[in-house]
Amino acid sequence: MLLTSDAATACTAAAQGPSWERARELAHAAPLPLGARALPLAAAAGTTLADALRTRDPLPAFDTAAMDGYAVAGAGPWRIRGAVRAGAVWDGSLAAGEAVEISTGAPVPADARAVLPLERAALSGGRVSGRTPLPGRHIRRAGEDAPAGAVLVPAGTRVGPAQLGLAAACGYDTLHVRPRPRVTVLVTGDELERRGRPGPGRIRDALGPLLPPLVAAFGGETVAVEYVSDRPAGLLARTVNAVSDCEIIVVTGSTSVGATDQLRGCCATPGARMVVDTVACRPGHPQLMAGLGAGRWLVGLPGNPYAALVAAHTLLAPLIAGLSGRTLPHLPQAPVSGDVQPVAGLTRLVPVAWDGSSARVVGGHRAAFLHGAALGDALAVITDGWADGSPAPLVPLEG
């Protein structure tokens, strides 16, 4: 039977797997988020908020001096009644024509009209003079930044320095978070050298050093990097089955259909299910993701370093986001210029130098060559409708 051109294209697309965009969506949607736990602030960096971060009290909690100077009542000159410093409270009351010396961050007396900055004040004989400030000037009013109970940071936000500082400012000692997914990396390939310059017929392993910091940038935690020989047959499956202290097992190499490619055999065990089997993209086509049951996930990356980097952004990053309870990141777009040939039915991912407004293709991005990625800021997602200078989605390269 002869196939029409449309039918032939459909068969080819099926053999190539889902589109790059669809593969990302499948990887993100497959897992349930990890269970939440309470962690002290010192241990919460890199985790993901399971609950929204809310104010417990108004911010600021009291009327606060925004500058060093004098809290004044009425018009000047003003008689100085005392002083109030940050961390203390002045219990008196001010009448018109009176003032207290005040430090930045100190509570402002209730009767004060405004704060006269120190550099605009003249002091003489227990009195201070200066141009009368407008009402409320240099005072941060209680609740001015946020009222009590306000959502400051939504659930699903990755916890970084600013979130930790804000939580502390709100009076939190712990946060309810989802932990970083744990990852074990299994590097396959009998041709790999792990140190020094490789000899004849050998190549230096690039993925053992590359993947742990990339996993960390995605929001995961690498618990081990192990090297697995291509022989004997079945060794990879036994090694995968023996891993028990993580949510994700990443295997590099062994994703194709050659004599030494054993990864698909690991997906034929009871309880396993294939989520993505190859992706219609270049490079990185022979990649896969499978559920192994009991909350464990297998991600297969190609052995070629640049192809593996592309595949990690395709499947591993969305999987970690899904396990963390974070949304699938929206990809920014920018005009992309450079010598790239789109391929019908495939997505090409090429490194680009991106200045925030436009992007330029960086050379040196064959499947085994990381030069372009090392110089670039992002991966441009090039589909068959793209033309030189037209917009394309960008995947920021984690650094």
TrEMBL record:
UniProt enzyme class: transferase
Catalytic activity entry: adenylyl-molybdopterin + molybdate = Mo-molybdopterin + AMP + H(+)
Magnesium as UniProt keyword: yes
Keywords, alphabetical: Magnesium, Metal-binding, Molybdenum, Molybdenum cofactor biosynthesis, Transferase
One Pfam family this sequence matches: MoCF_biosynth
Cofactor(s), names only, from the UniProt record: Mg(2+)
GO cellular component terms attached to this protein's record: cytosol
GO biological process: Mo-molybdopterin cofactor biosynthetic process
EC number: 2.10.1.1
Gene3D superfamilies in the record: MoaB/Mog-like domain, MoeA, C-terminal, domain IV, Molybdopterin biosynthesis moea protein, domain 2, Molybdopterin biosynthesis moea protein, domain 3
Domain MoaB/Mog: 184-322
Pathway: Cofactor biosynthesis; molybdopterin biosynthesis
Gene Ontology molecular functions: metal ion binding; molybdopterin molybdotransferase activity
Record-stated family: Belongs to the MoeA family.
Role: Catalyzes the insertion of molybdate into adenylated molybdopterin with the concomitant release of AMP.
Name under which the protein is recorded: Molybdopterin molybdenumtransferase
